[in-house]
Specification:
Elements lengths: L1 H12 L7 H7 L7 H12 L3 H14 L1 H9 L3 H8 L3 H14 L3 H9 L1 H10 L10 H14 L14 H17 L13 H16 L3 H8 L2 H14 L10 H14 L7 H13 L13 H13 L3 H9 L7 H16 L3 H9 L2 H17 L8 H12 L2 H4 L5 H14 L5 H15 L3 H9 L13 H11 L3 H14 L3 H8 L1 H7 L22 H4 L4 H12 L8 H17 L3 H7 L2 H11 L7 H23 L5 H11 L2 H19 L5 H21 L4
Helix pairs in contact: 1-4, 3-4, 3-5, 4-5, 4-7, 7-10, 7-12, 10-11, 10-12, 11-12, 12-15, 14-18, 15-19, 17-19, 18-21, 19-21, 19-22, 21-22, 21-24, 22-24, 22-25, 24-25, 25-26, 25-28, 27-28, 28-33, 32-33, 32-35, 33-36, 35-36, 35-38, 36-39, 38-39
Organism: Malassezia brasiliensis
Protein name: SWI5-dependent HO expression protein 4
InterPro entries: ARM-like (IPR011989), ARM-type_fold (IPR016024)
Length: 695
């Protein structure tokens, strides 16, 4: 009880002391059995100052909702205050308090079912007011009306109000925000009608903007967006002593809701949604499910154009924001929406505005959640960083020393997160690929990066996780991204040794090249990628997996299959520079695939065909060189004899003959195609020259 008295004393003073934060903590510990005493204390104070009591109740609803409900409902204080709020300021304070109380589901149900509250609301509603109400009170009453119309607390996106009414409410609240002063949020324990109206108008717009039509209204209103940006800047000048700036939080939440993309849904989730709509007699789908990506992208661009990004970046980098988990989470979701569109110029502009630094600052929370094995970690910031890293030169994104290594840690956390979506895994792999392409040293950092929380041995590092993840997911785009990542990681010496078999030979104490037996191994059947058949725990099995992925089947493979073959064959071209890899690849299956890469049996774009041929020529050159440098003896003779009659060399001769004839006729090629053709042709002639030494 003493805490309530102290709270009222604070309100009377009008300027909360630094120690008053303790009042809020102690109020939260009050027992609901003290409701009668608290109600009487507030009732006595209301005789002298109704507004003061309403502010005290507003604080109580936020920190001790159960006690506040009992005070208002069972002790009859609510009905007394409805009668006593007879001037504009008191009506504003009452509506502000009731709107705050309506955030709690039990109190919202109580207020909705109370006929006196409904009568009071009807009396002052700004649609057809029986009694004129001030502009400040009108905004608070509109918010109360919106909250009492919420049909589902799970989504807060469905209202028992006609859409035309929602549009009218939005227009009134918009006027309040645009015309509002830029005064700093006074905080919980101070009451300013204009500030309360502004805060409630923003919150009301936040609920309404969940309706798709109103998202467009918001983002097409340049004046409103500029007003929001201006308010954000002002709120960062100072925050309430006892709480964060609620205005800044609501603005960020409002923009995040307006720019949100539809969450990816599985087939099962779509079926469940359809069943629910059927059970609800054709109810409309949830607003979030109807958001088209192009509409969300357009709204995000409008937010950027209106100048909202600089204050958002400043807010993310602000020291005091570090302790506000909810604000950081909402900021992360908003920045993810802003960078989602695959628009390189837009992402470049966002980087210039500091979004990269803001996202990196917000990644710490997500990384910590992953490290602590949170049940559902919010990885929005990690995904935003991955998106930026896909389309941006890492040198521009990570300018400070050590920043790239930290960025790799964050993106690797997204790569490993068990709850992640296929899209998040794909984007993490693409981002790590871009980072690994910077230099062999950075490729080594990527390869050795461990998950935020320890995993099993197969997932102990990014490099080791590629094969298990490849087998786990059969989505072609994800598989392509994983092999493209591997193609860049084999720049790293340790990863190179792991995949060529050098590390395996060193561990076994075996000679790098075993005498004989290469062609006696059971070949892998064409197109076979089973883990058992390929023995993926061995270097030979992993190499044969890459061989199988390099092979294109079907009359006209799609672009993803071709890209996967390019990545796999490019990786093999690098790995065959090792004699250990060549020893493991001298199999009939390898010979057949290389011949098809040189002379494909399917229809391919010319650039892709010559890219594959060039990779095959590099592999052929390495295999021929390996055969020529073997120690003299029966094993070398057997290998040389088999290679002289191989399909690979026959295809090499056919490629050289066909493309030499093409060059002789001087048919026109674009520069890239001509360069690829010439490189492959030159390499092929070298292969045939070296093949003559096979004996």
């Amino acid at each position: 009880m003493a805490d309530v008295v102290r709270l009222l004393d604070v309100l009377r003073r009008g300027s909360p002391a630094a120690g008053d934060a303790e009042i809020l903590k102690s109020l939260a510990k009050l027992d609901t059995n003290e409701a009668s005493t608290v109600a009487q204390s507030l009732r006595d104070a209301a005789v002298h100052d109704t507004v003061q009591v309403l502010v005290a109740l507003h604080v109580l609803t936020l920190v001790q909702a159960a006690l506040a409900q009992r005070v208002l409902e069972r002790e009859g204080l609510l009905h007394e205050l409805l009668d006593q709020a007879d001037d504009a300021q008191a009506r504003c304070a009452l509506a502000h308090m009731l709107a705050g109380a309506a955030s709690q589901v039990p109190m919202r149900k109580m207020l909705t079912a109370d006929p006196d509250v409904q009568a009071w609301l009807a009396r002052y509603t700004s649609d057809a007011p029986i009694v004129e109400v001030g502009d400040d009170a009108a905004a608070c009453i509109d918010l109360l009306r919106i909250k009492l119309a919420i049909e589902s607390d799970a989504t807060k996106g469905s209202f028992s109000l006609p859409q035309d009414t929602c549009i009218q409410l939005f227009a009134r609240l918009r006027a309040t925000v645009v015309q509002a002063s830029s005064a700093v949020d006074p905080g919980l324990l101070a009451f300013n009608p204009a500030a309360a109206a502004r805060a409630d108008a923003l919150e009301g717009m936040y609920y309404l903007v969940r309706l798709p039509a109103l998202r467009d209204v918001l983002c097409n209103d340049r004046s409103l967006l500029e007003a929001l940006a201006r308010l954000l800047l002002v709120q960062q000048a100072a925050s309430g002593t006892l709480q964060r700036s609620s205005v800044a939080f609501v603005i960020v939440s409002l923009l995040a809701a307006a720019c949100a993309y539809a969450a990816p849904r599985t087939d099962e989730q779509r079926r469940i949604e359809a069943l629910r709509r059927s059970a609800a007699r054709g109810a409309a789908p949830a607003p979030e499910a109807t958001v088209a990506p192009e509409d969300a992208a357009r709204r995000a661009r409008a937010v950027v154009e209106a100048g909202c990004v600089p204050p958002l970046v400043a807010l993310a980098l602000r020291t005091s924001t570090a302790a506000d988990v909810e604000l950081r989470r909402t900021l992360s979701a908003l920045l993810l929406s802003l960078v989602t569109e695959q628009n390189k110029p837009l992402r470049g502009r966002l980087l210039q505005l500091g979004v990269g630094r803001a996202v990196v600052a917000l990644c710490k929370d997500a990384y910590t959640a992953c490290a602590e094995r949170a049940a559902s970690p919010d990885v929005s910031a990690l995904q935003a960083l991955a998106k930026l890293c896909i389309s941006t030169d890492p040198a521009l994104l990570f300018r400070q020393d050590g920043a790239a290594e930290q960025g790799i840690q964050y993106i690797a956390a997204l790569f490993f997160v068990p709850q992640g979506t296929l899209l998040q895994l794909f984007e993490a792999a693409m981002a790590l690929t871009n980072l690994a392409s910077v230099s062999p040293a950075l490729a080594g950092v990527v390869a050795r990066t461990a998950p935020a929380a320890p995993h099993d041995a197969e997932h102990s590092t990014v490099a080791r996780a590629i094969v298990p993840l490849f087998l786990q997911h059969d989505e072609p785009m994800v598989r392509r991204a994983l092999i493209e990542l591997l193609c860049n990681l084999v720049q790293d010496e340790a990863t190179f040794a792991e995949w060529t078999g050098d590390a395996e030979d060193a561990a076994n104490g075996a000679a790098p090249v075993a005498e004989g037996g290469e062609f006696s191994e059971e070949p892998v059947r064409h197109g076979e990628t089973g883990a058992v058949a390929l023995r993926l725990h061995t270097a030979r099995g992993r190499l044969q997996l890459l061989v199988s992925l390099s092979d294109l089947t079907g009359a006209a493979p799609d672009a993803t299959a071709v890209a996967l073959a390019l990545a796999a064959s490019g990786t093999l071209a690098t790995l065959t520079s090792s004699p250990a890899a060549c020893a493991r690849l001298l199999l009939p299956s390898t010979d057949a695939v290389l011949s098809r890469l040189l002379m494909p049996e399917c229809t391919l774009p010319l650039v892709d065909a010559h890219q594959l041929a060039l990779r095959a020529m590099v592999m052929a050159a390495n295999l021929v060189q390996y055969a020529n440098t073997r120690p003299a003896g029966p094993a070398r003779a057997a290998v040389a004899a088999r290679m002289r009659t191989s399909a690979m060399l026959a295809a090499c001769r056919a490629y050289v003959a066909e493309n030499a004839a093409h060059a002789a006729t001087r048919r026109g090629d674009d520069a890239r195609l001509a360069s690829l053709r010439q490189q492959a042709l030159t390499m092929g002639m070298d292969v045939l020259h070296e093949a003559q030494k096979l004996a």
